[in-house]
Amino acid sequence: MIKLIILDVDGVLTDGLITYDSEGREYKSFNVKDGYGIVRARRMGIEIAVVTGRFSSMVEKRCSELGIREVYQGVENKLKIYNYLKEKYDLEDSEIAVMGDDIPDIELLKRAGLSGAPSDAVEEVKKVVNFVSSKPGGRGAVREFIDLILSEKVE
Ligand SMILES: [Mg+2]
Fold it and tell me: Which domains, ranges and CATH numbers included, belong to the chain?
Protein backbone atom coordinates (compact mmCIF):
# COMPACT_ATOMS: atom_id res chain seq x y z
CA MET A 1 0.00 0.00 0.00
CA ILE A 2 1.41 3.40 -1.02
CA LYS A 3 1.74 5.94 1.82
CA LEU A 4 3.95 8.55 0.16
CA ILE A 5 3.96 9.89 -3.41
CA ILE A 6 7.03 11.86 -4.52
CA LEU A 7 6.54 14.08 -7.57
CA ASP A 8 9.01 15.92 -9.76
CA VAL A 9 7.89 19.38 -10.98
CA ASP A 10 9.20 20.24 -14.46
CA GLY A 11 7.84 17.79 -17.00
CA VAL A 12 5.64 16.01 -14.43
CA LEU A 13 3.49 18.59 -12.62
CA THR A 14 4.13 20.93 -15.57
CA ASP A 15 4.62 20.40 -19.30
CA GLY A 16 8.30 21.22 -18.81
CA LEU A 17 8.05 24.67 -20.36
CA ILE A 18 9.49 27.58 -18.41
CA THR A 19 8.27 30.94 -19.67
CA TYR A 20 10.00 34.25 -18.88
CA ASP A 21 8.60 37.76 -19.16
CA SER A 22 10.70 40.83 -19.97
CA GLU A 23 11.39 41.33 -16.26
CA GLY A 24 12.90 37.87 -16.04
CA ARG A 25 9.96 36.52 -14.05
CA GLU A 26 9.34 32.84 -14.53
CA TYR A 27 5.98 31.22 -15.26
CA LYS A 28 4.84 27.62 -15.10
CA SER A 29 1.37 26.17 -15.60
CA PHE A 30 -0.15 23.51 -13.38
CA ASN A 31 -3.03 21.20 -14.18
CA VAL A 32 -6.25 21.44 -12.18
CA LYS A 33 -7.01 17.72 -12.60
CA ASP A 34 -3.58 16.82 -11.19
CA GLY A 35 -4.32 19.19 -8.32
CA TYR A 36 -7.59 17.49 -7.48
CA GLY A 37 -5.90 14.09 -7.58
CA ILE A 38 -3.33 15.35 -5.08
CA VAL A 39 -6.01 16.73 -2.76
CA ARG A 40 -7.91 13.42 -2.95
CA ALA A 41 -4.81 11.38 -2.19
CA ARG A 42 -4.06 13.58 0.83
CA ARG A 43 -7.62 13.14 2.12
CA MET A 44 -7.10 9.39 1.92
CA GLY A 45 -4.07 9.72 4.15
CA ILE A 46 -1.33 9.60 1.53
CA GLU A 47 1.52 12.07 2.04
CA ILE A 48 2.61 14.02 -1.05
CA ALA A 49 6.14 15.36 -1.54
CA VAL A 50 7.43 17.58 -4.31
CA VAL A 51 11.13 17.38 -5.13
CA THR A 52 12.74 19.52 -7.83
CA GLY A 53 16.20 20.49 -8.94
CA ARG A 54 15.12 24.03 -9.75
CA PHE A 55 13.68 26.79 -7.56
CA SER A 56 10.51 28.72 -8.30
CA SER A 57 8.17 30.75 -6.11
CA MET A 58 5.30 29.44 -8.26
CA VAL A 59 6.00 25.94 -6.98
CA GLU A 60 5.75 27.22 -3.39
CA LYS A 61 2.45 28.87 -4.23
CA ARG A 62 0.92 25.88 -6.00
CA CYS A 63 2.03 23.47 -3.27
CA SER A 64 0.64 25.62 -0.49
CA GLU A 65 -2.65 25.88 -2.40
CA LEU A 66 -2.81 22.08 -2.51
CA GLY A 67 -1.72 21.68 1.11
CA ILE A 68 1.52 19.91 0.21
CA ARG A 69 3.84 20.23 3.21
CA GLU A 70 6.87 18.38 1.87
CA VAL A 71 8.36 20.72 -0.74
CA TYR A 72 12.04 20.47 -1.62
CA GLN A 73 13.44 22.80 -4.27
CA GLY A 74 16.96 23.30 -5.60
CA VAL A 75 17.70 19.66 -4.82
CA GLU A 76 20.91 18.31 -6.35
CA ASN A 77 20.64 14.79 -4.99
CA LYS A 78 17.01 13.66 -5.05
CA LEU A 79 17.89 10.31 -3.51
CA LYS A 80 18.96 12.09 -0.31
CA ILE A 81 15.48 13.58 0.03
CA TYR A 82 13.94 10.20 -0.78
CA ASN A 83 15.91 8.57 2.04
CA TYR A 84 15.14 11.44 4.42
CA LEU A 85 11.38 11.14 3.77
CA LYS A 86 11.51 7.37 3.98
CA GLU A 87 13.04 7.64 7.44
CA LYS A 88 10.86 10.55 8.57
CA TYR A 89 7.62 8.66 7.81
CA ASP A 90 9.10 5.29 8.76
CA LEU A 91 8.35 3.71 5.38
CA GLU A 92 9.48 0.77 3.29
CA ASP A 93 10.40 1.34 -0.37
CA SER A 94 7.27 -0.65 -1.24
CA GLU A 95 5.13 2.09 0.38
CA ILE A 96 6.63 4.88 -1.76
CA ALA A 97 5.56 5.90 -5.27
CA VAL A 98 7.62 8.23 -7.46
CA MET A 99 6.78 9.99 -10.71
CA GLY A 100 9.60 11.51 -12.77
CA ASP A 101 10.43 12.31 -16.37
CA ASP A 102 14.18 12.71 -16.73
CA ILE A 103 17.61 11.31 -15.82
CA PRO A 104 17.88 12.96 -12.33
CA ASP A 105 14.77 10.96 -11.32
CA ILE A 106 16.02 7.52 -12.38
CA GLU A 107 17.65 6.47 -9.09
CA LEU A 108 14.48 7.29 -7.16
CA LEU A 109 12.26 5.59 -9.70
CA LYS A 110 14.31 2.41 -9.41
CA ARG A 111 14.20 2.52 -5.61
CA ALA A 112 10.47 3.17 -5.16
CA GLY A 113 7.88 0.41 -4.84
CA LEU A 114 5.84 2.00 -7.61
CA SER A 115 7.28 4.22 -10.32
CA GLY A 116 5.53 6.22 -13.00
CA ALA A 117 6.39 8.52 -15.90
CA PRO A 118 4.39 10.88 -18.13
CA SER A 119 4.00 9.77 -21.75
CA ASP A 120 6.59 12.34 -22.87
CA ALA A 121 9.29 11.32 -20.35
CA VAL A 122 12.73 10.55 -21.79
CA GLU A 123 13.18 6.98 -23.07
CA GLU A 124 15.70 6.09 -20.31
CA VAL A 125 13.02 6.86 -17.73
CA LYS A 126 10.19 5.08 -19.54
CA LYS A 127 12.35 1.95 -19.67
CA VAL A 128 12.72 1.69 -15.86
CA VAL A 129 9.22 2.61 -14.61
CA ASN A 130 6.29 0.35 -13.73
CA PHE A 131 3.72 2.69 -15.24
CA VAL A 132 3.80 5.04 -18.25
CA SER A 133 0.84 7.42 -18.27
CA SER A 134 -1.20 7.89 -21.43
CA LYS A 135 -0.87 11.64 -20.76
CA PRO A 136 2.13 13.96 -20.94
CA GLY A 137 3.54 16.01 -18.06
CA GLY A 138 1.31 18.91 -16.98
CA ARG A 139 -1.61 17.37 -18.87
CA GLY A 140 -3.00 14.87 -16.40
CA ALA A 141 -0.16 12.37 -16.04
CA VAL A 142 -0.04 12.91 -12.27
CA ARG A 143 -3.82 12.47 -11.99
CA GLU A 144 -3.65 9.17 -13.86
CA PHE A 145 -0.83 7.94 -11.63
CA ILE A 146 -2.70 8.94 -8.45
CA ASP A 147 -5.96 7.40 -9.68
CA LEU A 148 -4.07 4.13 -10.25
CA ILE A 149 -2.69 4.26 -6.71
CA LEU A 150 -6.06 5.11 -5.17
CA SER A 151 -7.89 2.39 -7.11
CA GLU A 152 -5.51 -0.19 -5.70
CA LYS A 153 -5.94 1.30 -2.25
CA VAL A 154 -9.70 0.82 -2.13
CA GLU A 155 -9.60 -2.77 -3.43
MG1 LIG B 1 11.59 16.80 -14.57
Answer: 4-154 (3.40.50.1000)
153: pLDDT strictly greater than 80: no
Question: pTM to 2 decimals?
Answer: 0.96
Ligand 1 mean position to 32 CA, how many Å? 19
CA 54–ligand 1 middle distance (angstroms): 9
Residue ranges near ligand 1 (ion) with Cβ within 5 Å: 8, 10-11, 101-102
**What is the per-residue pLDDT across 114-140, written as a single tens digit (0 to 9) for each?**
999 999 999 999 999 999 999 999 999
Q: How remote is the CA of residue 88 from the centroid of ligand 1, in Å?
A: 24
Ligand 1 center to 90 CA (angstroms): 26
DSSP readout, 19-36?
Answer: EE-TT--EE----HHHHH
- The Å distance, Cα 155 to ligand 1 centre, comes to 31
